[in-house]
Specification:
Layout (H helix, E strand, L loop, with lengths): L3 H14 L2 H10 L5 H29 L1 H20 L4 H14 L2 H12 L5 H30 L2 H21 L8 H6 L4 H5 L7 H29 L3 H30 L1 H18 L6 H29 L5 H30 L1 H34 L5
Length: about 400
């Protein structure tokens, strides 16, 4: 029951955000832009998130999660409204930059959940967050695709702005603060310098490097997925949106019925590795997915893999983070995600436009392969360390 407000906010927030993903490539192409410009638009948002994400996570450790969420929602409402009336690519880039700079939602939401849930139950809690996330994807893409097909792009973008406004009201009225805002808590909070210290922290740095390579692959895929489906299968904006909605249904079923129990049963490290194996298998199939049947197999493998990953990794990172720096560490995770989102979309969409699907898919698969190798190494080291600690005789 304590998680219901943040789950509701997550659902509505992603419902609005998910309108964007299948529409944006078609929206950018409407201005006569090349494939690589689609990647630049995605990268602009991520570059600004790279700057803002860790800082918002650190601020949330100091003043509380709620105020940061409010700032983020105000910025998102303004940026979506600006995007709805954008007359050119520069204004599109401005709108995406504004949302990126104001956006601290994901990392702060994860920190909020971790504040409220004891460590052994975090895998299940993040599965619920993943289910709320996925439920937004059920309705957002389908709604956006249908509205864009009938009324153009302005209406779905204005709907997304209205949904952000709803989350703002819910946050102000219903969401309790999860952290103490006492003077003592503020004095104990970490400084901005500690954000960069996390990258050298022996407890969390290996996980951060794993996350970076994994999200390099993910952002390469998300930025090119719509273009690839259009190129290989001829799907238009409505058909692509309905595929995203179906993908969201799969995510909800997995997160509610399977993923939480799976993560609890096999542990967060093994679950993280399993998720990457499934995603990697899906990416290997990308060049061959020229039929609906194989594309469906690819999307199911990817859907299961990312469902497991989205529940397991935040719990793993939360467990490795000190209590008073959890928001900062998860903010750093969000910042690394944004670094990947800045680097990969222009690269993968540029390669896709110049050389085709297979080289673009090879880049994506290569990044996830590196992440999986790091995950396997870290799991083995953790397994070797545990027996040696337990075997140490008591003095």
């Amino acid at each position: 029951m304590r998680l219901l407000p943040i789950l509701g906010i997550t659902f509505i927030d992603i419902l609005g955000f998910s309108i964007l993903i299948p529409l944006m490539p078609f929206f950018v192409k409407k201005f006569g832009a090349a494939d690589v410009v689609v990647g630049v638009v995605f990268a602009t948002y991520s570059l600004c998130q790279l700057i803002a994400g860790p800082l918002w996570g650190n601020v949330s450790d100091r003043i509380g999660r709620k105020m940061v969420l409010i700032v983020s929602q105000v910025g998102s409402t303004i940026s979506w409204t600006l995007l709805a009336f954008a007359p050119s690519i520069p204004i599109v880039l401005l709108a995406r930059a504004l949302e990126g700079l104001s956006g601290g939602n994901i990392g702060v939401t994860q920190a909020y959940v971790a504040d409220l849930v004891e460590p052994k139950k975090r895998g299940q809690a993040f599965a619920y967050v993943g289910a709320a996330f996925a439920a937004g994807f059920v309705f957002g893409p389908a709604t956006g695709g249908w509205l864009a097909q009938r009324y153009g792009f302005t209406v779905p973008f204005l709907l997304a702005a209205a949904l952000q406004l709803v989350t703002l009201v819910i946050t102000i009225v219903m969401l309790p603060e999860s952290r103490s805002r006492s003077t003592e808590g503020v004095q104990a909070a970490v400084s901005v310098r500690d954000i960069f210290g996390s990258l050298a922290d022996k407890a969390v740095a290996p996980l951060l490097w794993l996350r970076l390579f994994y999200t390099l692959g993910m952002y390469g895929w998300f930025s090119s997925m719509t273009l690839i489906l259009h190129q290989q299968l001829g799907w238009n904006v409505a058909e692509t949106s309905y595929v995203f909605a179906t993908f969201g249904i799969l995510q909800v079923v997995l997160q509610i019925g399977i993923v939480g129990r799976l993560v609890s049963a096999i542990g967060t490290r093994m679950a993280t590795n399993l998720g990457m194996v499934l995603c990697l298998t899906a990416f290997v199939l990308v060049p061959f997915a020229t039929s609906f049947a194989l594309a469906a197999v690819l999307l199911v493998l990817f859907g299961v893999g990312i469902s497991i990953e989205n529940a397991a990794f935040p719990a793993l990172a939360s467990d490795a983070s000190p209590d008073d720096r959890r928001g900062t560490v998860l903010g750093v995770v969000s910042g690394l995600d944004s670094l990947a989102g800045f680097l990969m979309p222009p690269i993968v969409t540029g390669v896709l436009g110049a050389f085709g699907v297979a080289p673009a898919a090879a880049i994506i698969a290569g990044m996830v392969t590196v992440a999986l190798a790091l995950g396997v190494i870290q799991t083995r080291r953790a397994g070797q360390a545990a027996p040696s600690l337990s075997a140490t005789p008591a003095e």
